[in-house]
Amino acid sequence: MPGLPLPTARAVRRTRHANMAAALACAILLRAPEANSEARRHVSELVLSDPRLPDDAALLAQIEAAVDFRVRAEFTRQLDAEYPGDLLEDAQTPQEALRKGALGLDALFAVGDDLFEYAFRPGQGLGNDLAGFDLAGHGPMPNMRRVHAGDFGGPDAFSCAGCHFKGGPDGSGTNTQNAFFRGDGDSTKSADERNPPHVLGLGPVAALAREMTAELQATRDDALADARERREPVRRRLRTKGVAFGHITALPDGMADVSEVEGVDPDLVVRPFGWKGHQASLRGIVEESFRVHMGLVSANIQERVRDGLLSPDLYGDGEWSDIDKDGTIIEIDDGMVTTMVVYLAQLQVPLVQPPQAPLLLDAFAQGRGLFERVGCASCHRPVMVLEDPLLVTRPDQPRFMDDEPVVVDVARDGVHPKPAARTLLEEAFEVELFSDLKRHDMGPALRTPTIQRGVPPTVFLTRSLWGLAETAPYLHDGRAPTVHDAIVLHGGEARDARDAYRELTSEEQGALRVFLLALSRQPELFVP
Predict the structure, then answer these.
(1) How far is CA 299 from CA 227, 303, 313, 315, 400, in A?
(2) What is the pLDDT of the chain when averaged over all its residues?
(3) Mean pLDDT within 498-515
(4) Closest CA to 515 of 341, 372, 310
(5) C-alpha–C-alpha distance, residues 415 and 73, integer Å
(6) What is the mean pLDDT of residues 366-371?
(7) DSSP β-ladder status, 420-421 and 179-183
(8) CA–CA distance, 20 with 33 (Å, rounded to integer)
(9) pLDDT digit string (tens) for 253-306?
(10) Helix pair angle (334-345, 105-117), 10° resolution
(11) How far, in Å, CA of 439 to CA of 50, rounded?
(12) Is 19's pLDDT higher than 70?
């Protein structure tokens, strides 16, 4: 719905305000307004003291909707406890239903919201039965693992929301939600530890990466055409959206020398998902996350194993239709992957929220300049321009390949705020991502135990900083409890910026951190 947030209780539920007292007081007023004059006065003072809050009427309307949602949510949870699987029915959209085109983007968002929060159970595909255990005659044991067994995964979670909640729905995770990838299935010391990032703004990120890939590959293709025509090597600079990715040399025989390519794979596909930047698309990261964290194998994977297009090693040793032998034939339908992609693509983007206090506002302004001066912005680019906001997702299974794709306008559809239009006359949008979507060597202090998808242990994708204030702890494994700790642990290509930060006075360092902690999310209401 262009220009408007989703007008549903679910959308209101997805929000949180920094001052919880205001939300609680408003909830009290809704139930017994005549007996709470002091609470009414307190709410009015809070509203008037913060210009970012809506007026009384809008505030009370949002709280009323949120309270209504909580009542209905409690009812559905109780119903699902009495009749296991009832809630999952509301969180599933088979591809056949999408084929009919009966569901709009707002409906798919609502279904995706339920799917994101749904806690899967044994018998619904959770985990696997590769260990051969049984739950006292009630079905296979989910075979959960806190430490992943190699690339096979855990599973280590019951739901997406179980790890993505800090700072509000769809947020990051604390250290207790860290995942232990590529381990021996037993010892945390054997694993590659990862802290869950927030998932806000993934639609614009996916669209930016698509445009960057297209421009890099177009440069390569033009160079190859020139080399064939001129019958000599042609060297070209690789650059997109102001980000340099080294050089490529096209050869007359149609091959390309990629030895000077930097920060991206030789195929020049920008992969914006994962701490190492290993997944190119939302579909890819959704399918992978379902499998490695919950043991939910998609129908697309099963069919590709059946057709010999994938090795079964990462999925199990059962028949292709139930490769993890848990008794569930269809765990993640192609339509469910599409639904989750559409949901994530419609989430709001984080914002820069300058502080209200005059002294902090001065520090914020100073810190913004220091962010540029010390060199942070060379990798954490404050703004990237998105030319085409339409994100297209289509099913992977061959029998659905002719189905109409689902198209999301990541600058307009779904929950607001969204990226701002660059100008009134230009159809382009400014994404305040604070990243260059490029991989960089961060030095030995941050090295990981293993190589991931060919990415060396010291190399990481530039982490987007938007939403930073709500995502502590920091760095890929959550080892940094504060922003200061995260900065001083930078090394490698970020060493000069780190050293420049260290040379600042304590007041200047504080001002820079004030600016960074203004990278937050929309302050809104939440009724617990």
Answers:
(1) 43, 6, 16, 12, 12
(2) 87
(3) 98
(4) 372
(5) 20
(6) 98
(7) unpaired
(8) 19
(9) 999 999 999 999 999 999 999 999 999 999 999 999 999 999 999 999 999 999
(10) 100
(11) 40
(12) no
pLDDT tier for residue 138 given thresholds of 50, 70 and 90: low
Going edge to edge, which strands form the sheet with 179-183?
A: 147-149, 179-183, 192-194
Q: Are 63 and 27 in contact (CB under 8 A)?
A: yes
Bridge partners (DSSP) listed for residue 421: 429
- Give the separation between CA 183 and CA 146, rounded to whole angstroms: 10
Q: CB–CB of 200/432 below 8 Å?
A: no
Residue 56: pLDDT above 70?
A: yes
Between CA 454 and CA 196 the distance in angstroms is 21
pLDDT tier at 26 (50, 70, 90 boundaries)?
very low
Among candidate residues 316, 336, 338, 313, the one with its CA nearest the CA of residue 325: 316
> In what helix (H) or strand (E) does residue 257 lie, and over which residues does it extend?
strand 256-257
Amino acid at 395: P
Contact 342, 393 (CB under 8 A): yes
Tell me the residue type at 334: D
Give the confidence band of 468 by pLDDT, cuts at 50, 70, 90: very high
Pull the structure tokens for residue 396: 């992977």
Residue 431 bridge partners (DSSP): 384
From residue 189, how far is each of 402, 449, 475 by CA, in Å?
47, 9, 18
Concatenated DSSP letters for 305-322? HHTTSS-GGGT-SS-GGG
Termini Cα distance of the chain: 27
As a three-state string, the secondary structure of 417-428 is CCCEECCCCCCC
Q: Letter for the amino acid at 381?
A: R
Q: Which residue has the tokens 């968002």?
A: 109
Closest CA to 62 of 4, 2, 7: 7
Tell me how far apart the alpha carbons of residues 198 and 206 are, in angstroms, rounded to a whole number.
15
Q: Please give the structure tokens belonging to residue 465.
A: 């900083």
Structure tokens at 316: 């199990």
